[in-house]
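Hello support,

Our group uses your service weekly, and this is the first time we've seen a run hang past the timeout. The protein is FkbM family methyltransferase. I'm not sure whether the cause is the sequence or the server load. Input pasted verbatim:
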Amino acid sequence: MSRLSVFQVRTSFHGTEYGGWTICPDGLTASSLIYSFGVGEDTSFDLELIAQYGVEVHAFDPTPKSIAWVQSNSWPDRFHFHPIGIGSSDRMAFFFPPDDPSHVSHSILPRRNAASAPTQVQLFRLKTIADMLGHQQIDLLKMDIEGAEYEVITDLLDTHNIIIRQILIEFHPFFEGLTYNATANSIRQLEKRGYRLFNISNRGTEFSFIYL
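Update from on-call engineer: The timeout came from a worker crash unrelated to the input. Re-ran successfully.
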């Protein structure tokens, strides 16, 4: 992938080293709406946004281990959890566990050495989810969805009735069947629709975009 140009905006980092993300804080207030896909067992990012900006967070994860973890904890009023996933279509899908049973992240992509059998989970398009929740604007959309991001990006960019100001994505080109060319193509798609890349994590997998 060729060297990427990074747009200059004000930035801040929120969350743990493992689960944190870089955002542009400008304009985030108590009226802001956050969609956070991929909870796992780390909500440090979501909780810091609520504490610092007073935002409302809708978090999503259909992973059984993640659902159990969320249900075993208490949460602030502005944190809302939904045990569903995001996809490029509304469907039931197999969710494959990681190779290491101590890890939490599942994927719609088959795992060669999965620790256990896949489970079936419910996926919805972003448009379907926003319609169900009655939202037409999302101030910040975060996706750590284990390889499904490529198909989801194409679908959400074709959904013209939802305004998304910032998009944070973890890309997984190292997964079997995926490539760095797919990541470059997704970035080009976002840039053609007016999104500007403003941060790449030190790990080189988390990318932050803002609509200008």
